[in-house]
Amino acid sequence: MGKFKDLRVWNDSMDLATQVYEVTQDISFAKDFAFINQIRRAAVSIASNIAEGDERGTNREAVHFFNIAKGSSAEVITQLNIAFRVGYIDEARLLKLENLAEKVRAPLKNLIQSRGGSNPFTLIIWLLISLIRPI
Fold first, then answer.
1. What residues contact 127, with CB distance under 8 A and at least 6 apart?
2. Sign of the C-alpha dihedral, residues 133, 121, 109, 37?
3. Which of 80, 81, 84, 114 is nearest to 9 (CA)?
4. Annotated domain spans of the chain
């Protein structure tokens, strides 16, 4: 814990956020400020939640933030597909960015499992604890 800059998934999520910023600077996005804001916030959320989760004191808290990051990666994938469907990006750019987002999402599942997020017994214990002491 606490070495999020050394995590490959964090570095890949930083690359994804940077590329999302670059693609949304394109003229095709120019007037859709709400969409630009939403996809950028989702991309930034991935790296931010990985960092925050890794800095947390317990695996329970870390898994919570890693799950948020995983959800944000799915959000970015969805928004990239919307951008493609409305003509903001072409198929080649969609595939490139979608692959990068998947490169982030898949290792997050492994990171969650390695921190105890997939053990059903652990999940039940965390649920009971969270009822007593919320995150």
1. none
2. negative
3. 114
4. 4-132
Domain 4-132 class in CATH: mainly alpha
Q: CA nearest 45: which of 62, 19, 66, 27?
A: 66
Question: For the segment 2-27, what is each residue's pLDDT rounded down to a tens digit?
Answer: 589 999 999 999 999 999 999 999 99
Nearest-angstrom CA–CA distance, 32 and 40:
12
CA distance 85 to 123: 38
Cβ of 112: how many Cβ atoms within 10 Å?
21
Closest residue by Cα to residue 101 from 12, 8, 38 = 12
pLDDT tens for 94-118 read 999 999 999 999 999 988 988 886 5
Give the span between the Cα atoms of 32 and 24, in whole angstroms: 10
3-class SS letters over 41-95: HHHHHHHHHHHHHHHCCCHHHHHHHHHHHHHHHHHHHHHHHHHHHCCCCCHHHHH
